[in-house]
Amino acid sequence: MKRTWWKESVVYQIYPISFKDSNGDGIGDLRGIISKLDYLRDLGVDVVWICPIYKSPGHDNGYDISNYCEIKPQFGTMEDFDELLHGLHTRGMKLMMDLVLNHTSDEHPWFLESRQSRNNPKRDYYIWRKGKNGGPPNNWESYFSGSVWEYDARTDEYYLHLYSKHQPDLNWENPAVIGEMHNMIQWWLKKGVDGFRFDAIAHIVKAKGLPDADNPDHSPTVRAYGMFSNLDHVHTLLQNLHDEVLYFYDIMTVGETSGLGPEQALDYVGDGRRELNMTFQFEHMFLDAASPGSGKWDVVPWKLADLKRVMTGWQTILHKKGWNANYLCNHDQPRCVSRFGNDGPYRIPSAKMLATFIHTLEGTPYIYQGEELGMTNIAFDAIDDYRDVETLNFYKERVEAGVPEHEIMRAIHLKSRDNARTPMQWEAGGQAGFTTGTPWIAVNPNCKEINAAQAMQDRDSVYHYYKELIRLRKRHEVFVYGEYRLLLEDHPEIYAYTRTLDDTLLLVILNFFAGEPVFEWPDSVKIEGIELLISNYKPDEWEDLRQLRLRPYEARVYLQQGSRG
Ligand code: NOJ
């Protein structure tokens, strides 16, 4: 298998507005990130993915860009950006930018022009259609509730927006749009950035014939993105971007591609496809949704059998053919310890167990800010404390539909994106050391116990465990390149697998729950010469490896060298 730096890297994701505020305005900023570069270096991560910092009115915290080549003043200046990039590079780390190519802000000059008149030269930068029977062109819904169509009285037409009405979709059928995008990406590459996360890239190509004959109303109404996901032409556009721009730089690319399985993902990341290095998959993020069509808000308990099935599919199908991006948390998802672990009495062991999982799969691990501290969900009592556009739209829509308040809030507590967006917990006191002012969203009161200052001093903390996993991953190639094989497929509590590279083997044992199941040592792994590399518990002196009773959320990683000897 071809070895490359981006396969061997660990990525740390920063959500800038919530990471660190340097000037007391309650909003995280670039100088705040600069002040924490040593923290990131000490953790051992290689790449920092920074969510959008471009000029933006901020209806979706930066995923609504009004100028791709300017920094949002609240975040800082281009000089601050250059210093950040330099600061990362001098510490041996790289920077991955987050690029939103599917849509812009409705305040982008292209859109301001586009809405002027039907024959404005920028009209076709976006997707405009006539209404039908006095209403929108069809009844398709956006990601963030409500119609995908927004009426614009000036020209008496509707524009398409898969996300909020402040995020009009670009028209990638228009060669001028493609040209603008290629130039802009080139501009950032010349500055020396080391890669891109391509936001919502699966959606840039819309269904043919949109929206008329082939795209009628649906009954019941459907969310439009399902029809605009991973269509064939996306691949041509990505190949062109690769051949004309990306190919000339040694960078890392990851696409956000919802709605596909591993076979289809190979169309993006398969060796020789000339598209992306890896994509974020979402199958495991829908394991707690009542049904794929029900959207994310109708929550049911997830099942370990499904997690094994999904992850094993991605591990085996992409092996030697593509590459995985492994994550359990990001800025759009609840905190992973609250969702897949236990944020009560077993917070620390379960956070470490999940960390073990992410770092021992084949693929590049992604850590979301605060995950390395075991930060948890927040459950604000009042809707007024929430800030996220998706959450607020959902609340409004369900209230209007007559759904009882407690049911709506239950879903929000479990699934709101704000769970992951409360400020990074640096210290116990004040506003968790995030700001000296009033934070844009409230700090989680559990910062008194969960914070970086305390975690760095405690050798048994979640933070030190992440650090050790990252160190081990760099030390033993088998963590990166070893072939995955699932063990105990039907065990209801234990997720176990091996990774094999030449004559080196890793055995990973994860107890995903609070029970104490017995792990029967597999015949396929020799016990002699086995070395325990890491665990979230101290091994018991008298334990019998052949019949290992695991403690709640216990994780163990064993190394066997000369395993074929
Ligand atoms: C995916 C991003 O991760 C999310 O935060 C954003 O709201 C949408 N794309 C729209 O850009």
Automatic annotation (TrEMBL):
<dbReference type="InterPro" id="IPR013780">
    <property type="entry name" value="Glyco_hydro_b"/>
</dbReference>
<dbReference type="GO" id="GO:0004574">
    <property type="term" value="F:oligo-1,6-glucosidase activity"/>
</dbReference>
<dbReference type="Pfam" id="PF00128">
    <property type="entry name" value="Alpha-amylase"/>
</dbReference>
<dbReference type="InterPro" id="IPR045857">
    <property type="entry name" value="O16G_dom_2"/>
</dbReference>
<keyword id="KW-0326">Glycosidase</keyword>
<comment type="similarity">
    <text>Belongs to the glycosyl hydrolase 13 family.</text>
</comment>
<keyword id="KW-0378">Hydrolase</keyword>
<dbReference type="GO" id="GO:0004556">
    <property type="term" value="F:alpha-amylase activity"/>
</dbReference>
<feature type="domain" description="Glycosyl hydrolase family 13 catalytic">
    <location>
        <begin position="13"/>
        <end position="421"/>
    </location>
</feature>
<dbReference type="InterPro" id="IPR006047">
    <property type="entry name" value="GH13_cat_dom"/>
</dbReference>
<dbReference type="GO" id="GO:0009313">
    <property type="term" value="P:oligosaccharide catabolic process"/>
</dbReference>
<protein>
    <recommendedName>
        <fullName>oligo-1,6-glucosidase</fullName>
        <ecNumber>3.2.1.10</ecNumber>
    </recommendedName>
</protein>
<dbReference type="InterPro" id="IPR017853">
    <property type="entry name" value="GH"/>
</dbReference>
